[in-house]
Amino acid sequence: MSPMSTNGERTIPSWTPGRTSAKYRPSSATPPSPRPTEQVPPPVADVMPALAAAWAESRELGVAVAVAVATGMRRGEVCGLRWVDVDLEAGSLRVVRNVVLVGGKVTAKDPKTHQARRFSIDAGLVAVLAEHRAAMVERARLAEVDLVDDAWVLSRSADGSVPLYPDSVSKAWKRVADAHGLAGMRLHDLRHLNATIQIDAGVPASTVAQRLGHATMATTLRVYAHAVAARDQEAADVIGRALDATKPPPGEGGGSDGDEGGGG
Question: Cα–Cα distance between 86 and 78 in angstroms, integer?
């Protein structure tokens, strides 16, 4: 019960700086993160020349871009892939870490939402990764070393023991994007392109969310509202066509028997 004044009105307890009771102590909880805003990437046709040109920059960038656009993985997740995470035979990979640079040192952390995930990859990406692994094995042979057991998929070291830094990949992509009329398009925007392609193709939002590693499907629906809206219109058109198919031909079914007809 709140304390009462002598005239029967409730009083509001005061709070004095430096004197906090357990009941009225200001909250120390971390404020919520800003809600993700809607993302609208460039059309696929506009991006394709830059995707092809990434290979001319370096094989590592070509592979990084191929993985990013085909899977929608975040850049730290792409750099965090090890070969033990890739199953070329099954055509799948798992995302279990996120590479970041802390104090000048590479650190592997959990994915952004702390959710490990596994998903299928298409035959084209399987071929890209298989060719890339063969090239890494050959590079190691020429350097007279072996790939380490937990070699990184993206590494410039002969034995694959050191991952590429996410910032290095982003800067290399920026050079390519700027040169192909995509100024301002970040490596992360390939993730948005991947999501938009999926939604436009009719992939369920729940599947898109799982592949992207979103904490909830609501995030997917909010960030890619533009694509969802287009699918919503298609759904309305599907319903309309289905109902049109059940309508009687013109001149039929308009009358009725009994008193409601128009004459007789």
Answer: 12
Show the DSSP H helices in 215-263 as ranges.
217-223, 225-244
What's the rounded Cα separation, in Å, for the pair 64 and 153? Answer: 9
Q: What is the pTM of this model?
A: 0.72
- CATH number 2.70.98.70 given to 44-185: no
Name the residue ranges covered by the structural domains of the chain: 44-185
Amino acid at 178: D
Pair 85, 92: CB distance under 8 Å: no
Between CA 71 and CA 191 the distance in angstroms is: 8
Report how far residue 44's alpha carbon sits from residue 22's, in angstroms, rounded to the nearest whole number: 56
pLDDT digits (tens, 9 = 90+) for 56-113: 999 999 999 999 999 999 999 999 999 999 999 999 999 999 998 888 888 888 877 6
Say how many CA atoms lie within 13 Å of 159 toward its Cβ: 7
